[in-house]
Amino acid sequence: MQQCEMMRALHDRNGVPPLRKIDASFAGLAKIVVGQQVSAQSAAAIWSRVAAGVRPCDAETLARMPDKRLSELGLSAGKVKTLKALADAIRSGAVDLSVFRRAPDEEIIAQLTAVHGIGPWTADIYLLFALRRADAFAAGDLAMQLAAQRLFMLDARPHAVALTALAERWRPWRGIAARMLWADYSRQKADARSAAGTKAG
Is 92 left (phi over 0), alpha (psi -120 to 50) or beta? Predict the structure, then answer.
């Protein structure tokens, strides 16, 4: 990774990116599900209501809650269905969080993506930020795809398969590359907002 000129350029531009920490429990996984396909701000607002309304935030408690109550906390019908499916999978043993610390990435991804509404992005984010797997890489993440488009000077945003191929050069430390790409995307957004503010002024 240190020998990659691209990663060195991102480090020089953005410094060391912060390390997001998500609990490896049901609550942490539920938080990631809440963040699917919504902005970071919306996800944070919804999660704060869910965390306050589902106590304790575990599979048993959420499984017993009426769908209507979960909807009142800000969850869409699709997110309610996914969280209920995840809670049921954990209660039945189809998903066993207790073995994830030592299970291979492929087994974890297979268990999680077998649950309704959980796709590769959710599994990859869980691997990276909850289990801290060094080679986890969420190739389906929009922000990371846009950052990679800029980094590789591509005409179009790479889709998940294309980005996975590009990221092969960073194995077995793709998790670090992912953090660097996210940091660069955040920098791009901040620069764009600053430029827009300067023009408006």
Answer: alpha
Q: Tell me how far the alpha carbon of residue 166 is from its chain's centroid.
A: 19
**What CA–CA distance (Å, rounded) separates 45 from 107?**
32
Q: How many helices (H) and strands (E) does the chain have?
A: 11, 0
Question: Would you identify the CATH topology of the domain 26-130?
Answer: Endonuclease III; domain 1 (1.10.340)
Region of 39 on the Ramachandran plot (φ > 0 left; ψ -120 to 50 alpha; else beta): beta
Asked about 88 being catalytic, the answer comes back as: no
| The amino acid at 167 | A
The rounded distance, in Å, linking the Cα atoms of 181 and 3 is 16
Q: Per residue in 128-176, pLDDT tens?
A: 999 999 999 999 999 999 999 999 999 999 999 999 999 999 999 999 9
Q: What gap in Å lies between CA 191 and CA 186, rounded to an integer?
A: 9
Cis upstream peptide for 17 (omega within 30°): no
Identify the active-site residue in 23, 135, 141, 155: 141
Q: Where are the domains of the chain?
A: 5-18+140-200, 26-130
What is the pTM (predicted TM-score) of this model? 0.91
Q: How far apart are CA 82 and CA 12, in angstroms?
A: 40
